[in-house]
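Weekly puzzle thread! Below is a chain. First person to post its structure in token form gets bragging rights.
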Amino acid sequence: MKSFQKLVLALVLTLATLPLAAEKAAAPAAGAKGAETAVFAVPGLKDEAVVKSLTLALAKEPGVMSAKADAAAGKFLVTFEPGKTGKATLEQAMTKVVPAAKLEKIGPADAKDAAKADCGKCPSKATCEKKS
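Winning reply:
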């Protein structure tokens, strides 16, 4: 009978700790950064072929959440997850398509402009009208 009681006690203790383990796993790691946006100065953004080529190139990069052009300002904005990609990778992808592309700044992503992290890697991701 004692071994049965020990087994039940062990089972109860195990089940009692499961919600705590699940909460700990769901919590972001300490120091984890949120999405960031890199702003590139890119000549020729009024050419739709350039925009399409940049969008397709960035869609292949892991961690890129969205990519969109502001042709009037000559800027190309790339929202990404810092843990999955970084400055060097983005610069390389951009300059492979447009060698004159220059990184101007990287800052926190604006939540309303950032694409959902589970969004697909489709070429139209930069112009997607889905809202989070």
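Puzzle host: Confirmed. Bonus trivia for everyone else. The helical segments are 2-26, 48-59, 87-97.
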